[in-house]
Amino acid sequence: MKEIKEYALLNHVPIIRDQTLDALEKICKTHNPKSVLEIGTAIGYSGLKILSNCDCILTTIEKDLIRAEKAKSNFEKYNFINRVNLIQDDALNVLIRLVKNKEKFDLIFLDGPKGQYIKYYPYLKKLLNKNGILFADNVLLMGLVQSGEEIPHKKRSMIINMRKFLKILKEDIEFQTIIYDVEDGYSISKLTKK
Ligand SMILES: C[S@@+](CC[C@H](N)C(=O)[O-])C[C@H]1O[C@@H](n2cnc3c(N)ncnc32)[C@H](O)[C@@H]1O
Question: What is this structure's pTM?
């Protein structure tokens, strides 16, 4: 899968960073989730890593048509396509549909648009099984989320929304959450009550 990483770097496709990936892979190995939901497929790099570290069925959502097509061919190339439900659509539309259909997941990897995590939160909670895990990437956004310094105007609403997301996650007594100040920051939350 080195070639997919190289393609991503060359074509400016954002993908999961190495230490964050290590943590995600460890969760897949130790919890062996049967159903995984990923928001933000890009070209399938993290999805392939999830699939190779557990026996799950992966439902993965990507809005961008070209990236979704590239992801499909990568899942085919590595012979994982029969375990993948790739949905090319806006994540919020899909989350609404999944909740309506009463779908449930053991692990959710949240790696879509950073300003939307707060909007997705209530749906994600409904979609998790008891003891399910929500793994959210980029929650510290290059230190800006916890910084007391003035936020660049262009990133203001994204940072404010991410702060709201982390606050609600930390204060939710049904979740046990740890935030890791590693790379761009990631959080791991276990839904202990339901
Ligand atoms: C950080 S990348 C995902 C990287 C991927 N998880 C990996 O590590 O290989 C985020 C992806 O979310 C997609 N995205 C952005 N807005 C979206 C939306 N509203 N619905 C679904 N996908 C979206 C982007 O096109 C982008 O490919």
Answer: 0.97
**Do 148 and 142 contact (CB within 8 A), yes or no?**
no
Give the least confident one: 43-57, 114-128, 147-161.
Answer: 147-161
Structure tokens at 92: 């919020």
In a domain, 154, yes or no: yes
Question: How many domains does the chain divide into?
Answer: 1
> Which of 182, 165, 158, 173 lies closest to 110, judged by CA?
165
What integer best gives the mean pLDDT of the chain? 96
Give the nearest ligand 1 atom to 47 CA: 9
Domain that holds residue 163: 16-191
* CATH number assigned to the domain comprising residue 52: 3.40.50.150
- Nearest by Cα to 180 from 2, 39, 18, 23: 23
Ligand 1 proximal residues by C-beta, below 6 Å:
14-16, 40, 42, 45-46, 61-64, 67, 90-91, 111-113
Q: Beta-carbon neighbour count of residue 171 at 10 Å?
A: 9
Encode pLDDT of 31-73 as tens digits. 999 999 999 999 999 999 999 999 999 999 999 999 999 999 9
